[in-house]
Amino acid sequence: MSDRSPLPPVRLHPEAELARDALSTPLLSRAARLARWAGPDTRVDAGGGLVDEQLPAAVEALGLSGDDAAADASEAWRVAVDAGLVEVVDEEEGTVRAGEDLALLTGGSPQEVLAVWLTALETVLADASVPDLDGLVDEEGEVDLSALDWDPEGEAAFLDGVLGNLYLLTAGEDTPGGAPVPLPALAASVIVPSDMGEPTNDVLEQVSDAMMRLDDQFRMLEPVGFVAYQPVDEALMADADEEPAAPVDDTDVSRYGMVRLTPLGLYGMRARLREAGYEAPAVGDLADKGADVLLDGTADFPPGAAQAETEQWLQRREALAAARELLAAARGADAGAPLRRLRCQQALSLVGASAEPALREVLDDAELGGLARVWLTEHGAVDVPAPSEEMVYWLTIDTVAAQLAAEGNSEELRALVEGLAQQHGGFFAAVWRVDHPATADVLEAMGRLHPDKKVAKEARKAAFKARSQQGG
Predict the structure, then answer these.
(1) Does residue 254 lie in a domain region?
(2) For residues 151-175, b (16+ Cβ closer than 10 Å) or e, as one string?
(3) 100 close to 84: Cβ distance less than 8 angstroms
(4) Final residue of a domain: which of 40, 75, 109?
(5) What is the pLDDT along the chain (472 residues), one digit of tens a residue?
(6) Are 375 and 450 within one domain?
(7) Could you write out the DSSP letters of every residue in 2-60?
(8) 265 located within any domain
(9) 366 with 419, same domain?
(10) In terms of domains, do 382 and 421 share one?
(11) Per the domain annotation, does 364 fall within a domain?
């Protein structure tokens, strides 16, 4: 995620549902319980952490047990302080009281609950970028930082890069909803150069090291509800001289770790990306905007996301008024107009027969008359006037221009180009005269895309004529 180009749109769960998810996460629920447990006798150190003498009571209050109980209680307390659930009253005395934001967890809006959760998430992400300090404590009980090869900014940037790629994989239309990503693939996405064919041994070693770091980090991020994580199989990290406890399947990629963003994690990651200045749209963002914003905004959306966005937009409007607004917004001779008209046509396919008057009103419109006839015919309308040859050719150029803008030189477009040349005798002899801003560009594209050299040459000749006619 090195550039700042718009990210794919994501489909978020309703905020009320996400807020309930946030409240039920192990870490935030523990933090809230400790905030309510704290009283006049609770004491914290200079950094706001619970003093060692009070950790056993905190562990008991949370009902924790096991080797990690004290660490889990300490982390929950740290989140409570950072998220405003607990407030330090007197730093010298180490006294605390309930923070103002504690009441938001029971009486606040979904947005306010999620804001508390986002603060908790930032605390965990900061902790996840700190290396394991075990073994670095000297004889006096101090951490020997000189023995630590740690770049705080670099480590945070590495984790941000990994999470950004995980977001892209989650948001992608080709990724099945909720499908986990293998940890080796995720680590390789930020380590292996995109132009590298076969990774070198050195690069593979870096990927292996990154996997081990990410294994620790994702284990930390799961309790806050950010990810769902299947850890790396412990047998893979055993010493080579040790015999595995049971036979292992080396072909099972899940043994190397699997991770996915939860719906709450997707919400959190989008919030962080927007805070960092990225354009990170979500389906539903355009529902209260005008049709012009909808058509332009969904121009680069994948088909599924564009339809979902349009459906939400239509739900807020009466069908006939929506159709008129869409058609008005589809007009134009600018470079983006053909794709706007394609999105308009796709949007109108979701509108019922009650929109028919709006389509009949534009039958004589040079830019909209063709798509209006298509819609009316598909909806079984009667008395639909046949289009003129000029309108047919204009609509053909407009459609191909829109497909070029939406898909580039795709196989679908190649098939469309071949079909047009086959179905219409003398197509190129007539089409270069079409008064459309994209005529020459479309014909040049047809010359590139058509597999028959003779037909491709005809297309290029027609493109030259069109450009000369346009004064280019």
Answers:
(1) no
(2) eeeebeebbbebbbbbbebbbeeee
(3) yes
(4) 109
(5) 556 677 889 999 999 999 999 999 999 999 999 999 999 999 999 889 999 999 999 999 999 999 999 999 999 999 999 999 999 999 888 999 999 999 999 999 999 999 999 999 999 999 998 876 555 555 665 655 555 566 778 888 899 999 999 999 887 665 555 689 999 999 998 888 877 778 888 888 999 999 999 999 999 999 999 999 999 888 776 544 455 455 555 567 788 899 999 999 999 999 999 999 999 999 999 999 999 999 999 988 888 899 999 999 999 999 999 999 999 999 999 999 999 999 999 999 999 899 999 999 999 999 999 999 999 999 999 999 999 999 999 999 999 999 898 887 778 888 888 888 777 768 888 899 999 999 999 999 989 888 889 888 988 999 999 998 877 5
(6) no
(7) -S-PPPPPB-PPPHHHHHHHHHHSHHHHHHHHHHHH--TT--B-TTSPBPGGGHHHHHH
(8) no
(9) no
(10) no
(11) yes
Q: Considering its fold, how many domains does the chain have in total?
A: 3
Is residue 352 located within the same domain as residue 420? no
Residue 422 class from Cβ within 10 Å (0-12 exposed, 13-18 middle, 19+ buried)?
A: exposed
Domain with 443 in it: 409-471
Handedness of CA 280, 284, 290, 291 (dihedral sign): positive
Please give the single-letter amino acid code of residue 269. M
In a domain, 455, yes or no: yes
Co-location of 306 and 368 in the same domain: yes
| Domain boundary residue, one of 85, 109, 133 | 109
For residues 329 and 364, state if they share a domain. Answer: yes
> Same domain for 369 and 444?
no
DSSP 213-270: HHHHHHHHHTTTTSEEEEPPPGGGGS-TTSPPSS---TT-GGGG-EEEE-HHHHHHHH
Spatial contact of 293 and 286, defined as CB atoms under 8 Å apart: yes
* Distance, CA of 234 to CA of 23 (rounded, Å): 31
- DSSP-derived 3-state class of residue 143: strand
Spatial distance between the Cα atoms of 423 and 427, rounded to a whole number of angstroms: 8
Degrees, nearest 5: CA angle 1-339-291: 95
Global confidence as pTM: 0.84
Asked whether residue 65 falls in the same domain as residue 96, the answer is: yes
